[in-house]
Each structure stands twice: as structure tokens, then as C-alpha cells.
Design brief:
247 residues; mainly alpha; ARM-type_fold; DNA alkylation repair enzyme; DNA_alkylation
């Protein structure tokens, strides 16, 4: 554990590993160009395993220091902040002596505030946090409203948070959250919504009930976007893919 559990210390640790050449590649990959979905984002060139390793060094960091990381213009700082947030949330919820729900709730509040303020604003940031934080919290409480509220939002990243959060329920063998979200997002043709929705449908067939996926596609394939349908059918036979596309 790092002795100096501050945002500045995390930033300094990240700076030691910065790679300008990789940073340029990441900026292109995450569409930081004008008009791209990641427009204006800044990168310093860290690999994800490096960011996870940094987060492990700063276990026990305080919420306000994580907020400072999430407010950074640098993409990697925000992802490290989310790794830290996720780790502290999971430790609070899974304590051997029983869940510390007050601590877990505080971390969820930090997360949701960051989402609302546009700090969780790229697909990797959403996908590394929505399921293990918001999704697990809602599953723990038996509540779907926060997930549905995000899925119903027109903002791209809030909507993707709502979709990906259903993954937590799917991992627990429960398709209720995804089936409740589906009508809210099915007709959204934005690429990053389509991919997330199709991915979750595929996981529903894999983790919960294959027939449930096929029944959903039978009823909805004709109204789904091609990208979502392609993702949902990724592991189906060529004959099945052809059939559902024909609908």
C-alpha cells in the first residue's frame, strides 16, 4: 500500500509509466478527435494492467481523493480512479464481518455523481464500473430504479451505464434487469448503445437462459438495429443468424 494515499501520488505514479507514443495511439482508438465520441480526452499512454497495478498500491484511499482523480482531464487518471472506487466499494460490500452498507453507499454516491457530471465518459470507463458498482449495488438492494433511470436517459454515457449495469444481474442468473431495460434502448441506433445492448442480450443467452434469448429475438429482431442483432447472435449457428436477420 502506498503511504501517501492522495490523488497527487497516484498521478505521480502514473506519470512514471507515461508513454507518449502509446498516448497518441490511444487518443485515436478512443476517438478523442473533434467530433469523435471521446472528443477532447487526454491520454498519457498507460496500459490497463499498469493502471490496475497502480490502483492496488493505493488501496484505502479516501473518497475525496478519488473524486479528484475522476475530475482529471487525463483518461488514465479517471480509469485508475474508477478502479480504486470499485475496489473500495467491493471491500465495503463483501466484508467478512458483514456488509458495511453505509460505506458502500457512499462509494456508489461518488460514482453516480461522477456519471452525472460527465466524468465517466468513454466506453471503457463505463464498462469497468457500471456492472461492478451500480449493478451490484442494485442487485444487493433488490432495486432496479437507478438502472432504469440511467437507461432511459438520452445522454450516451448515462444510457450505456444503465445497459452495462444489468450485467451484474446476468452474472447472478437473473435477466429481470436487462428485460426491463430492453424497451428503453432497443430503438436507439447509436453504435455504442447498440453494441452494449447486443452484448448484454448475448450474455443473457449464455449466463441465464438460451431460450430466453431466442424468444426475445423472435419477438424483437425485426425492430432491432443490425449492430445489436449481430452482437446478440455472435455465438449462434449460421442458420440461426440468417433466420433472425431475415425477420
Amino acid at each position: 500500500m502506498g503511504a501517501d494515499l492522495t490523488a497527487e501520488a497516484v498521478v505521480a505514479a502514473a506519470a512514471e509509466l507515461a508513454d507518449p507514443e502509446r498516448a497518441a495511439d490511444l487518443a485515436r482508438f478512443f476517438q478523442a478527435r473533434p467530433g469523435g465520441y471521446g472528443e477532447g480526452d487526454e491520454f498519457i499512454g498507460l496500459k490497463v494492467p499498469q493502471q490496475r497495478a497502480i490502483a492496488r498500491r493505493f488501496r484505502g484511499i479516501a473518497p475525496d481523493e478519488v473524486v479528484r482523480l475522476l475530475d482529471s482531464p487525463v483518461h488514465e487518471h479517471r480509469l485508475i480512479g474508477l478502479f480504486l472506487l470499485r475496489g473500495e466499494f467491493e471491500r465495503a460490500l463483501n466484508r467478512r464481518s458483514g456488509p458495511d452498507r453505509d460505506a458502500a453507499r457512499r462509494w456508489v454516491e461518488v460514482y453516480l455523481d461522477a456519471v452525472r457530471r460527465g466524468r465517466v465518459n468513454n466506453w471503457d470507463l463505463v464498462d469497468s464500473s457500471a456492472d461492478p458498482v451500480l449493478g451490484e449495488w442494485c442487485h444487493h438492494l433488490g432495486q432496479l430504479d437507478p438502472i432504469l433511470e440511467h437507461a432511459a436517459h438520452q445522454d450516451l454515457w448515462l444510457r450505456r451505464v444503465g445497459i452495462i449495469a444489468t450485467f451484474a444481474h446476468l452474472k447472478h442468473g437473473d435477466a429481470t434487469a436487462l428485460l426491463a431495460v430492453a424497451p428503453l434502448v432497443r430503438d436507439d441506433r447509436r453504435d455504442l448503445v447498440q453494441k452494449a445492448f447486443g452484448w448484454m442480450l448475448r450474455e443473457m443467452g449464455k449466463r441465464v437462459d438460451e431460450q430466453l434469448l431466442l424468444d426475445y429475438l423472435e419477438a424483437n429482431a425485426s425492430q432491432m438495429g443490425r449492430t445489436a442483432l449481430t452482437y446478440a447472435l455472435e455465438h449462434r449457428s449460421p442458420q440461426e443468424r440468417a433466420y433472425y436477420r431475415s425477420l
